[in-house]
Design a protein that fits this description.
With 216 residues, this protein is α+β, with helices and mostly antiparallel strands. The protein has two domains: 100 residues, Beta-Lactamase (2-Layer Sandwich), CATH 3.30.450; 108 residues, OB fold (Dihydrolipoamide Acetyltransferase, E2P). Helix content is 16%, strand content 42%. The radius of gyration is 18 Å and the shape is globular. The two termini are 32 Å apart.
């Protein structure tokens, strides 16, 4: 990919990233594209080699989505990064990395505080069944009831534990521990029956990643 095609690709799915995020795209050796945000800037330049201490390098090494807090020793600025490898024809072609300011780690730790009726309720991650983007709000269904959160679905996704939460649709993230059944919905997609009997679609965009995550 040349710089212009990468820029067009980033622009096409920019809304999937939090507005606070800087975006870096690389091949397996070097950064190809970098778009800084006003909240954090690592001063990456196209052509810079990927340092082995970056979250990008680590994601490429394990060939799976990786999220980690990186201290200031690498770029001079601490950051929280989530990197997702680009897999092409069975091989790793590169990586897309969302870079957030490390101070955001204060906002989300092991729970979300949702607004329910006229109060706020702290909900541990393990009690969250699924998250849904609807009518410009993020709704969280949990064992403590349903409520909303001020962050977008994509912003919350960066902080959810990778071993139990997965994006299955543009509008849904599910906790796999609350999936009761996975039913075929077409040749390449699925329908999830959650333990509360809610039906959630797995879109074609996420079907392959979903199957890989659950090993079926």
């Amino acid at each position: 990919m040349n710089r212009f095609s990468v820029a067009a690709m980033v622009e096409s799915f920019r809304e999937l990233f939090p507005k606070e995020a800087s975006i870096a795209v690389s091949d397996v050796h070097r950064f190809l594209y970098y778009e800084p945000s006003k909240y954090v800037d690592l001063k990456i330049k196209p052509g810079d080699e990927i340092d082995e201490n970056t979250v990008t390098f680590k994601a490429l090494a394990v060939r799976q989505k990786t999220s980690e807090h990186i201290n200031s020793n690498v770029f001079g600025t601490p950051y929280y990064g989530t990197s997702d490898p680009i897999i092409d024809a069975g091989g790793t072609a590169g990586c897309v990395t969302a870079i957030l300011p490390s101070k955001q780690l204060r906002f989300l730790s092991t729970f979300l505080t949702i607004q329910k009726d006229h109060c706020w309720v702290p909900v541990p991650y393990e009690e969250m069944m699924f998250l849904e983007a609807q009518n410009r709000k993020t709704w969280i269904q949990s064992e403590r009831g349903i409520g909303t959160h001020k962050f977008t679905l994509s912003e919350i996704e960066l902080y959810l534990p990778d071993d139990s939460f997965i994006r299955c649709h543009r509008s849904y993230i599910v906790n796999v521990n609350y999936i009761s059944e996975i039913q075929p919905d077409s040749h390449s997609t699925f329908l999830l029956i959650m333990k509360d009997r809610t039906k959630i679609p797995v879109s074609q965009t996420y079907a392959s990643q979903f199957r890989k995550f659950l090993s079926f």
